[in-house]
Every structure is written in structure tokens, then in C-alpha cells.
Specification:
Layout lengths: L19 H8 L9 E3 L19 E3 L19 E3 L19 E3 L12 H4 L6 E3 L17 H8 L5 E2 L2 E2 L5 H19 L43 H49 L6
Parallel strand pairs: 1-2, 2-3, 3-4, 4-5, 5-6
Antiparallel strand pairs: 6-7
Protein name: Leucine-rich repeat-containing protein 61-like isoform X1
Keywords: Leucine-rich repeat, Repeat
């Protein structure tokens, strides 16, 4: 059993601060600079300790801890993804030289203003930022400000994903359409156009629903009327058919003409080849 877990419990030990031994035990690597991936999610960490010595670290998850300072991360030049969600972080300046960083999840912290994000704007490869997670109810104070999204995108125009929303590239159009559908459904619900009946059916003493009238369901209706897909203007329909027929006949005539020209060219080639063969035989010296 790994020393990184409680004996008999199977749950990771609280770390408080990250040590060399914890890093080696967790990763299975003997040298810290050989570690490329670390997941210390929900370990009670308040101090990142010596994690900066993992100079080749590429993926780090320290979410759901008690971290307030990111200074030890300043030496991680090869970091690609970083999850620091659900901590107590107020500053991101330690990431200003993380030139390889592509994705940052900082939802559920204490970042209070757009200015605190300026250090990320200069990172050439940075394209995915999350400052709020509505599903898990993780936010930053900055997310509640006016024009939050507009101001973030103005500062970081290279962003492709913000708070899980695909802004550009593959999937952006699908995401936009789904968002519009969600908004339309929510607006219809809010306006009372439809409602979900959450009331429970009447029950007897045993808890089994008693008999009662079954609500009448509306009969299904066809999506289209019987003649809705037919052309209303029969003259226009006849004209369209005549036009297509004429074009098809013209194509057939062209095909026949090309076939005849091809046959003539082939006959000429055969005739020429035969005559050349006869002339060649005449010129041969057949004497012994």
C-alpha cells in the first residue's frame, strides 16, 4: 500500500503542505524533475511547498484545497493544464511566465477584478479559461461584474473557451445553437407557456396511489398537413418538370454526339495503323 494513503482506509492522507516525499510517493518517480502529472485534489493543502521543483510538470490538479498563494508555481515553464478551482486564491501573478499554459480552471476562488487576469493575456498558447462553474456553483467575485464576459474577451482575444463556452473553432456553432435553445425553453417556462406538473398522485394509507380519473392526453397531430409538401402552383410544377426533361434530353444528345466522334476517331486510328503496317512490310527485304 502507498504511504500516500491511510492504512486500512483507502483515502488519501491530508497533506497540509506538499513535500518531496509526497510528490515521489504519489507519482512513483524518484526524481522530481521526472514528474509530469500530479493530482492532489481535495487533500487539505494550504501550502504548495516544493512543487516548483517539478520543473517538467505539465498537468497539475490542486482543486478543492485551502490554497491562497501560487508563488511556488512560478518556475513551472512546461505547465499545460492547471486546475486550482475551489481554493482561496486572489492573485494569479505567479503564472505570468507560464508560457506553455493552455488551460486554467480557477472557478470558486476570490479573484475580484478583471485586472487580476492581465498576467494571462500575454501567454501565447493560453486559450481556455474558467472562472465560474454554474453546475457546481463555483464563482469568483469578478464574474458578477457588469460586462464580465465582454471585458475578459477584450483583454484576451485569443481565448477559444470561456467558462465552458466554446467561442471559436470546432463546436462553437453547436454550442451557440444549444445555448439559444436553452434560453428559449427557459423563457417559455418563465412566461408560463408550459409547466411541469410535479404534484404527487393521491395515495391511500398504504402509500399506493388510489384509483381516480386519468388525465386525458391530447391526440398526436401530424407535423405536416396532407398536401403541405405539394406545390400549390400546378403550372409552375409542370414548367419545372418540362425544364428538367429538356435538359436531360440535351444531355443525351451530347452523349450521342460524343460517342459518334469517338468512334470516328478510333476508326481513323485503326486505318492509319493498318496502312502503316502494310507499307512497312513492303519495304522489308525478304530475300535470303
Amino acid at each position: 500500500m502507498s504511504e500516500d494513503t491511510e492504512k486500512g482506509a483507502g483515502e488519501p492522507k491530508p497533506l497540509a503542505h506538499i513535500t518531496r516525499q509526497a510528490l515521489k510517493t504519489h507519482s512513483g518517480e524518484f526524481e522530481l524533475d521526472s514528474i509530469t502529472y500530479i493530482n492532489f485534489r481535495d487533500r487539505g493543502i494550504s501550502d504548495l511547498g516544493c512543487i516548483g521543483e517539478c520543473t517538467n510538470l505539465q498537468h497539475l490538479n490542486v482543486s478543492m484545497n485551502d490554497i491562497s498563494r501560487l508563488a511556488p508555481l512560478s518556475s513551472l515553464k512546461h505547465l499545460l493544464t492547471l486546475d486550482i478551482s475551489a481554493n482561496r486564491i486572489t492573485q494569479l501573478d505567479a503564472l505570468k511566465d507560464a508560457d506553455s499554459l493552455q488551460t486554467l480552471n480557477a472557478a470558486g476562488n476570490l479573484i475580484s477584478s478583471i485586472d487580476k487576469l492581465a498576467c494571462l493575456a500575454k501567454l501565447e498558447h493560453f486559450s481556455n479559461l474558467r472562472l465560474q462553474d454554474k453546475v457546481h456553483e463555483l464563482f469568483n467575485p469578478v464574474c458578477h461584474g457588469a460586462s464580465y464576459k465582454k471585458r475578459v474577451l477584450s483583454m484576451m482575444p485569443r481565448l477559444k473557451v470561456l467558462d465552458g463556452e466554446v467561442l471559436s473553432g470546432k463546436g462553437s456553432e453547436v454550442f451557440r445553437i444549444c445555448s439559444e435553445i436553452d434560453a428559449t425553453l427557459q423563457a417559455a417556462h418563465d412566461s408560463g407557456l408550459y409547466a411541469i406538473n410535479t404534484s404527487k398522485p393521491p395515495s391511500g394509507a398504504s402509500g399506493i396511489p388510489t384509483s381516480g380519473p386519468i388525465p386525458e392526453m391530447s391526440k398526436p397531430q401530424p407535423w405536416f398537413a396532407g398536401d403541405s409538401l405539394k406545390l400549390k402552383d400546378t403550372k409552375a410544377q409542370d414548367a419545372a418538370i418540362d425544364d428538367v426533361t429538356k435538359k436531360f434530353k440535351d444531355v443525351l444528345v451530347d452523349c450521342q454526339r460524343l460517342q459518334e466522334e469517338g468512334q470516328r476517331a478510333l476508326d481513323q486510328a485503326k486505318s492509319s495503323s493498318t496502312q502503316q503496317g502494310i507499307d512497312h512490310l513492303k519495304n522489308l527485304d525478304l530475300s535470303i
